[in-house]
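Appendix B. One record, verbatim.
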Amino acid sequence: MLKKVLIANRGEIACRVMRTCKRLGIASVAVYHHEDRNAPHVAMADEKVQLTGQVPTQAYLDQEQIVAACKATGAEAVHPGYGFLSENAGFAKRITEAGITFIGPDPEVITLMGDKIISREFAAKHGIPVAPSAKQTGTIEAFIKEAAAIGFPLLIKASAGGGGKGMKIVRKTEELEENIRVAASEAQRYFSDGRVYAERLVDMPRHIEVQVLGDGKGNVVHLFERECSIQRRYQKVVEESPAPNLPAKLRDEICASAVRLCAAAKYKNAGTVEFILGSKGEYYFLEMNTRLQVEHPVTEIVLGLDLVEEQLKIASGQGLALKQSDIRQNGHALEVRVCAERPEKDFQPATGRVGVLRVPQGEGVRWDGGIREGQAVTPAFDSMLAKLISYGPDRATAIGRLAGALRDTVLLGVPTNIDFLSRIMANPVFKDGKLHTGFIKEQGESLMPAPVPAATEAAVAVAALTITDDFQASAFHTPEPYASIGAWRN
């Protein structure tokens, strides 16, 4: 097993990887920007190395500094977490060339699966269903003609994209040219790659993804599926496993497709194959994420596994320890992403300082976080603050436990989506498992929290602060002026 691992990330995922490292007796190394010097992942690590950069993201993306940190600390492997450099083939290659183990797939596979056009062609070649599509190989006029021939509605997507960037829905021919140009412009701006393609849009689909593990030699197992249909702006809000109301035969077909794709690519380590599922049971390959997913805890809980441990085993050369016949789902798990944002203002990211933080406890409840009281929430990073996960023997129990855990969560000082998440848990359509990617838009106002006057919000925050340890110590344990003078008489 590996002896020392550097985590090239921050926040919740860095803490998550470190917990497994500590349990396995593996030393952990944190990297951090000055603004993160007091962050939980820095305090939790066995060693830490400061990165320099004018802005925090610049520091965390500096490959040479990370390689230098590995050499300075003797870290023999790098875990990229998710985001930042996790799906950067150049980074994986740079790490490997430096004689350091990259805890993830080979650079060539990251390149193959990271390009949506190439990965779709690869999937189709190996018998994985893909939605009818067209790519631009000549003039834009020829592309428009080929795209329109597929039939509407269409989705224009960036080849190197993600997170809804470079993505446009088109419902008639007259809208095609303008949307193609806008999508290509966004793709170039966000990903330095202006290539786009068009594919048949499946209206109101479900988003089903399959967790996989591979040894890099063609041996792959699936860890069943996750339902990720509850989304806003193409970003996931609620994830769960198993997917509700999914016929067993269809589940088997989707999981088998994921295994076939990854076996053909000789995939190594953990990854996720994503599919779009239509209302008539038709499913299409969407993309592959060549890293650990944010929502991996729901898979861990229903299977009784530690996916980070499995990653470390594969990276250390132990290969796949799991056999498909030994992997069984048990019960139901859900996860929500607690974000600093204002749902009532189109999920606008919010900033502030965490004044009070009380983490929920209880049976079947798990909190994966990387924040602390007093920590500043800035625009420098993604708005996700933590993940709240619940487990139950069935879906209804898991929903009930998650609803209770959300009620017990206290996070003051920065606006969050906690109330919004509670309303999802209480929604009857959600409880029935009638899910699709347009759920939030469809349910609309019923999910939005009632507006709270700014003065009330401030008063609640101040009142809550009075119960914190720091306030108590300041208010009740500081000697009064005369007590500090010493002996005296009047």
